[in-house]
Specification:
The protein has two domains: about 5-130 and about 275-289, Roll (Diaminopimelate Epimerase, Chain A, domain 1), CATH 3.10.310; about 135-275, Diaminopimelate Epimerase, Chain A, domain 1 (Roll). With about 290 residues, it is α+β, with helices and mostly antiparallel strands. The chain is built from four helices and 20 strands. The protein starts with a strand and ends in a 6-residue tail after the last strand.
């Protein structure tokens, strides 16, 4: 181990949070093998590590002449596995790039899903313009051990990574759901070979939703999931008639806003806006592992 790394990762990091989703952010491109994946797992573990839903690596990328500044974003879940995309993480990466002087307030982030344009505002809010179209997939049956908490079918939709959108049964509020019991069997739904993030939804008055998410790779409920919020808003617009933009309350208490243009089962011009906060800067110690 060199003086600049610990467990194969740079010692210096930032802790950031986007609508309650929290991340460890490292500058530079990663080489993540078994050793680094174990380091990620240890650092993301709450109580004994720093604690986070995932890890972001942000690298400056050469942009064509006259184009917006560009950065590359590599994202790893708390289990050490690489994921194609994390919406809240990408918003945090955009603000990290601006604060570190890697980009101006209009930039492009290259993710495993594809290039994503972002606008970073002075107040710390970040808007992503997502690749399109986002297609609503087939419905699949839900597994409700109580038999009455959620509706009998869930909508599948991919927003960089696979999601299920599950609406609460009539008379049930999302805040009362036992997500720890409902989430795991749906997260491993047999109709979805890759598994999925599971988003439980209550429709509020006007164009408003409340969403709670059980995330694969974290294997627990998180305080927010940006791509899950997008999935929920797209399904609610298509199936429940909500008129965009849709304001979505998350478990953290922070709200995200999704705008889109719906054409049948396809969502175009999709944007996601919300906060991306710098919590602290840190220096890893060997005792962390």
């Amino acid at each position: 181990m060199t003086g600049a790394t610990i467990g194969g990762l740079n010692r210096s990091f930032w802790k950031m949070a986007g609508a309650g989703n929290d991340f460890l952010v490292f500058p530079g491109a990663p080489t993540v093998g078994a050793r680094e994946a174990e380091t990620i797992r240890r650092l993301c573990r709450r109580g004994t590590g720093v604690g986070a839903d995932g890890v972001l690596f942000v690298t400056e990328k050469e942009a064509p002449a006259g184009a917006r500044p560009e950065v590359k974003v590599d994202y790893f879940n708390a289990d050490g596995g690489r994921a194609r995309f994390c919406a809240n993480g990408t918003r945090c990466a955009a603000r990290f790039a601006v604060l570190r002087g890697l980009a101006a307030d209009e930039l492009v982030l290259h993710t495993g899903w594809g290039p994503i344009a972002a606008t970073v505002r002075p107040d710390g809010n970040v808007t992503l313009r997502l690749p399109e179209p986002i297609a609503l997939g087939a419905d699949v049956p839900t597994f409700d051990p109580a038999g009455r908490q959620v509706e009998p079918r869930a909508a599948s939709v991919t927003v960089g990574v696979p999601h299920l959108v599950v609406f609460c049964a009539e008379g049930v509020e999302v805040e009362t759901l036992d997500v720890a019991a409902l989430g795991p069997p749906l997260r491993r739904h047999p109709a979805l070979p890759e598994g999925a993030n599971v988003n439980f939804v209550s429709v509020r008055g006007g164009s408003r939703l409340s969403v709670r998410t059980f995330e694969r790779g974290v294997e627990a409920e998180t305080l927010s999931c940006g791509s899950g919020v997008v999935a929920a808003a797209a399904v609610a617009a298509a199936e429940r008639g909500l008129v965009p933009p849709v304001a979505v309350a998350t478990r953290s208490g922070s709200a995200l806003v999704v705008d889109l243009r719906l054409e049948g089962s396809l969502a175009h011009d999709v944007t996601l806006t919300g906060d991306a906060r710098l919590v602290f800067e840190g220096l890893l110690k060997e005792e962390a592992l």
